[in-house]
Design a protein that fits this description.
It contains twelve helices and 17 strands. The protein has helices at about 45-50, 100-105, 155, 165-175, 190-200, 215-220, 235, 255-260, 280-285, 300-310, 325-335, 345-350; strands spanning about 5-10, 20-25, 35-45, 70-75, 85-90, 95, 115, 135-140, 145, 180-185, 205-210, 225-230, 240-245, 260-270, 290-295, 320, 340-345. Helix 4 crosses helix 5 and helix 4 crosses helix 10. The structure holds NADP nicotinamide-adenine-dinucleotide phosphate (NAP) and zinc ion. Zinc ion binds near residues 44, 46, 66, 92 and 162.
């Protein structure tokens, strides 16, 4: 058994408990591992879904956090890709079976053996729990680590590791084209990144939001247009308007109403994960529409996305918080009051 590294963290002890200080054991880095001192960690709505066990099967104690930026402080004896001092990122998974078709295709997020999530999961041994980025350091296999290009402020880079790749990947995969009319549903962490990527890829971007007060922000973030879904005419007046809809909403809403906004052969991609919601066949049949979904992105594509961000000046808009403020931040996310991603300054955890 390699020696363990005592590491301060914040954890939820049960679905109903608030996050509180906790101590975890990180492994001493093995030959293929890097040890990373964590600088920033973004706060994803998935952290809340999981800490409250809304998806079932949650593993407690849980240390959330899968938008990790840090500095390499130790490299294992066989590590080739990284050196001490490198600024790196870790996203939603830290391992996968590496042998299945999905892994070979560089789409580890769809690993047939099941990816090892950064937290709320088990290592490949099936019994060692994984703990996420609400902690001061993490040991990760070198192949599951991303390079953070120079020029992106580090706190604004953290959300790219989940919110960024989750929106970039489907826009690329389903072929968003220059001039396409893109609708982004929900202006939160994922949604605001979808707006930025949509514009950077040359689309005409409209935000559909249930928060009318976000209009000015949406336009400032780069959207060309804004529709309040509280406006009762919004769905009727905009029927058949969009080529592509990316739906980032975390709570239940009527997919059929949004499908009606697609033109013939339009596509709607779900990335938000609310409770199950029915879809009526005519919503798809009537204009040969496509409804799909998409899960984060593989390591190769995540690196491509980070490089794209550096090249196009794309970064997340963030509110930096102390770890001690995490429970209030969760409440604000639940009220759709995040502008537009909370990012924890992990220095605040070193001082406790
Ligand atoms: P977020 O910051 O809370 O954003 C969600 C947005 O949804 C809110 O800002 C709000 O935007 C809208 N919304 C919330 N409640 C609503 C309601 N009742 N009706 C209509 N709209 C509502 O969350 P996030 O971090 O972006 O994550 C969004 C979802 O994506 C979560 O379910 C998360 O688990 C999931 N996710 C999926 C993946 C993946 O790989 N597919 C990856 C990461 C996260 P407006 O105020 O503009 O309406
Ligand atoms: Zn996430």
């Amino acid at each position: 058994m390699p020696a363990a590294l005592e590491t301060p963290a914040f954890a939820a002890m049960s679905p109903k408990s608030k996050l509180a200080p906790f101590s975890i054991q990180r492994r001493e880095p093995g030959p293929h591992d890097v040890l990373i001192d964590i600088l920033y960690c973004g706060v994803c709505h998935s952290d809340i879904h999981q800490a409250r066990d809304e998806w079932g099967g949650a593993i407690f104690p849980m240390v959330p956090g899968h938008e990790i930026i840090g500095k390499v402080v130790v490299t294992g004896s066989d590590v080739k890709k990284w050196k001490v001092g490198d600024i790196v990122g870790v996203g939603c998974f830290v391992d996968s079976d590496r042998t299945c078709e999905a892994c070979k295709a560089g789409e580890e997020q769809y690993c047939e053996g099941g990816m090892t999530l950064t937290y709320n999961s088990y290592e490949r041994d099936g019994k060692t729990p994984t703990y996420g980025g609400y902690s001061t350091r993490i040991a990760v296999d070198e192949n599951y680590v991303l390079r953070i290009p120079e020029g992106i402020p580090l706190e604004r880079a953290a959300p790219l590791l989940c919110a960024g790749i989750t929106t970039y990947s489907p826009l690329k995969h389903f072929g968003l084209k220059k001039g396409d009319k893109l609708a982004v549903v929900g202006l939160g962490g994922l949604g605001h990144m979808a707006v930025k990527f949509g514009r950077a890829m040359g689309a005409h971007v409209t935000v559909l939001s249930h928060s009318p007060g976000k209009r000015d922000d949406a336009l400032a973030l780069g959207a060309n247009d804004f529709l309040s879904t509280k406006d009762e005419n919004a769905f009727k007046d905009n029927a058949g308007r969009f080529d592509f809809i990316i739906d980032t909403v975390s709570a239940q809403h009527d997919y059929n109403a949004y499908l009606g906004l697609l033109r013939r052969d339009g596509i709607m991609v779900l990335v938000g994960v609310p409770d199950p919601t029915p879809v009526a066949a005519p919503s798809l049949i009537m204009k040969r529409r496509t409804l799909s979904g998409s899960l984060i992105g593989g390591i190769r594509e995540t690196q491509e996305m980070l490089d794209f961000c550096a090249e196009h000046g794309v970064a997340s808009d963030v509110e930096v918080i102390r770890i001690q403020d995490i429970n209030e931040a969760y409440e604000r996310v639940l009220k759709s009051d995040v502008r537009y991603r909370f990012v924890i300054d992990i220095a605040s955890l070193r001082q406790t």
